[in-house]
Amino acid sequence: MDTLSTYEIWYGRDCPPPARTKLRAGPLTLEFQQGALRYIRFGQQELVRRVYVGIRDHNWNTIPGELSDLKVDAANDCFTITFDSSHRAGSLQFDWRATITGASDGTITYAMDGVAKRPFRYCRIGFCLLHPIRECAGRPYRAQTPDGLITGNLPSSLIEPQRMENGLEIPLFPSFSSLAVALASDIEVRFKFEGDLFETEDQRNWTDGSFKTYCTPISLGYPHTARSGQEFHQKVTIEVSGIVPGVALPTLREKTRLTVGKPVGHTLPRIGFGIAGHVEGLRPRQARLLSQLRPAHLKAELHFRDAQWGAELDRAIRAADQVGTSLELAVFLGGDIEAELDLLRQRLVGVPLARLLVFHEAEAAVASTSSRWVEVLRKRLRSTSPDLVIGGGTNGNFAELNRARPDIEHMDAVSYTINPQVHASDERSLIEALSGQKDTVLTARSFCGALPICVSSVTLKPPFNQAATEEELPPAPNELPASVDPRQMSLFTAAWTVGSIRALTMGGAASATYYETTGWRGLIETDRGSPLPDRFRSRPGMVFPVYYVFADLADAMNAEAVALAPSDPLCVTGLALWNEERWRMLVSNLTPSVQEVTVGPLSAGSVTLRRLNENTARLAMFEPEGFQQVRESQTVRGKEVLLTLNPYETLRLDTER
After folding, report:
1. Is residue 56 in some structural domain?
2. What is the pLDDT of residue 236?
3. What sign does the dihedral 41-493-564-266 (CA atoms) show?
4. Which of 532, 555, 578 marks a domain boundary?
5. pLDDT at residue 247 in the model
6. What per-residue string of b and e applies to 592-626 under the rule 16 or more CB within 10 Å gives b?
7. In total, how many domains does the chain have?
């Protein structure tokens, strides 16, 4: 444990946070980070969330670039940035040169000139622009298309489905060469594009907290083939009207606040955990620690096409019995369905079931469960489990549920998965994705009525590449599987999970299945430890920090959720629960910097705190009983408490009535 660095405790890798360069273009402020422009603002109003060049291979995998020859020339109100970026993955070899300028009148340009170094297939090469949801939802737009000018309004609080036509995804409106979005306060942001046509989609379908404008039009099909020596040139120009050139609004804000509001009208979702994918069963210590979380269920997937599904079921029943909870079974139909269901019925006699989610192998990742499969399951299991809750949906992203909305007449619940890394993998993008989770629940509610919304499962990375059109190559012997994120064992994941539970609670989700029980996608490391300790830096038996998020909620599951609104949701998040006797709050710093946070109003004279940060992580990871006894108190002044949070710290706050 002593070999773990502070950065590894923060986010699982031994390197400092990416450098951020703050810039100004006349009245606008922005940041440059790892080749991207982020958070273009006028004062405190965000205008553009991100501008970057995306390179996606033939299976839609994002291929990161290695930057070189970076030069930043910045004055008080203008800047010029140049760099080279090189992308390598298998046959894909692409290099490009960036030239970025910001002028004193607020005009920003970003040009990309690239060349394919050899033939390769790709799905996207070019600019992506992210538009912030809070500022842009429901706002008017106009776009210049090859067929003329079009106008409309961007989607509002409900997520617009990305529909399919002839097997291809359809954007919100036709392809365009320029776009203007009218924001509040008479501000309009205009985008002009060179080198390609662009489209826009509602990225909340994948829980990204943005609308995305991208090239090349998906309507042209994919993948494309780049010729050796083929040149690519693109340029985007951003102009803003409704602001006074040369006059910059102050960007300094007061200390971050978490404002305690009114009850939201429901409790936390019923939280359960996935059963680990490795075959190692639960050891007594692991079972004891997991039982202390009082999980509502453990989830297992049964694929009838796999001859070992019966053994998987036996392992799941044993794990649920060890932890003292029920099972959530996701059953994937295929092959001889009737015979397999008869066998399943026999094996489920006497087994406590929270619910059964039914999918068909041919539908699961691309559409919603057909009602006939729900009826088949209900008919076969009715005799032994008349009160069984049977749900359906997708084991893909919310996009699939939203696109192919289910026939809910015969369903008892609706399910879909969530992960924040369909499009980007840096910490800031994962934090941005938290806001989209609430909107998925609200949108599902709009077409599922009063049916329980079961988010199953929530993971840091996609469990499989849903967009792949060809079989993926296995990872190299020294590389982590694509579904494993080294941040699983870090403080970052604990803080991100607080934000995720908050979002699903505010949306009104009935249940949520998080991560796995043990292993490198879980809450506790196995006794054997990480199979790749140089890549995934856990130690045998380590209790991951995210475990304590669920431990702190275990005795508050029936408490009433209360709104706890952050003044800056990209910096701090929090969850507040009230049970008529005390407050229980979790407050998390979502940044690699120290944050001062004011929480209130509170009626108590003092609060009790327990801190989960780099100073207490070692105790938490290896002496959970000792860590859970650590407490400190702090006085409440003027009905507020001022908290100082270390990077990615999660703080538990308790107060008596």
Report:
1. yes
2. 98
3. positive
4. 555
5. 62
6. beebebbbbebebeebebbbbbbebbebbbeebee
7. 3
Return d(Cα 533, Cα 156) in angstroms, integer. Answer: 45
- Look at residue 144 and give its three-state secondary structure: strand
Strand-pair category, 188-194 with 178-182: antiparallel
Q: Is residue 248 part of a domain?
A: no
Q: How confident is the model at residue 160 (pLDDT cuts 50, 70, 90)?
A: very high
Extended strands (E) in 568-640: 572-578, 582-589, 595-600, 606-612, 632-635
Average the pLDDT over each of 11-25, 26-40, 162-176, 225-239 and give the range with the smallest value: 162-176
Q: What is the DSSP letter of 78?
A: -
**Do 61 and 103 share a domain, yes or no?**
yes
- In this structure, the number of other CB atoms found within 10 A of the CB of residue 377 comes to 24
Q: Are residues 93 and 110 in the same domain?
A: yes
Are residues 476 and 548 located together in one domain of the fold? yes
* Whether the predicted pLDDT of 2 surpasses 60: no
Phi and psi at 224, nearest 5°, equal -105, 165
Q: What's the one-letter identity of residue 487?
A: R
Matching residue, tokens 């506790």: 524
Number of other CB atoms surrounding residue 204 within 10 Å? 27
Side-chain-side CA neighbours of residue 98 (13 Å): 31
Q: Is residue 52 part of a domain?
A: yes
What is the model's pTM? 0.95
Report whether pLDDT(107) > 80.
yes
Whether residues 568 and 521 fall in one domain: no
Give strand pairing partners of 633.
608
- C-alpha span between 488 and 588 (Å, rounded): 16
- CATH number for the domain harbouring residue 621: 2.60.40.1180
Tell me how many helices (H) and strands (E) the chain has. 13, 36
User: Which residues are 622's β-sheet partners?
Assistant: none
Same domain, 135 and 203: yes
Long-range residue pairs from 79-84, CB within 8 A, at least 24 positions apart, any chain: 79/23, 79/24, 79/25, 81/32, 83/35
505 lies in the same domain as 581: no
User: Is residue 2 in a domain?
Assistant: no
CA distances from 121 to 13, 139, 216, 225, 394 (A): 31, 37, 14, 4, 29
Q: How confident is the model at residue 464 (pLDDT cuts 50, 70, 90)?
A: confident
Cis bond leading into 223, ω under 30°? yes
Q: Are residues 515 and 645 in the same domain?
A: no
Please report the pLDDT score of residue 1 as a whole number.
46
Point out which residues pair with 94 in neighbouring strands: 87, 116
C-alpha to C-alpha distances, 563 to 263, 352, 538, 600, nearest whole angstrom:
6, 34, 35, 11
For residue 530, give the CATH number of its domain. Answer: 3.20.20.80
Of 567, 406, 421, 530, which Cα lies nearest the Cα of 483?
A: 421
Q: Are 80 and 32 in contact (CB under 8 A)?
A: no
Q: What whole-number distance in Å separates Cα of residue 40 and Cα of residue 57?
A: 28
Q: Whole domain around residue 163: which residue ranges? A: 12-241
Distance CA(296)–CA(328), nearest Å, equals 9
Same domain, 205 and 294: no
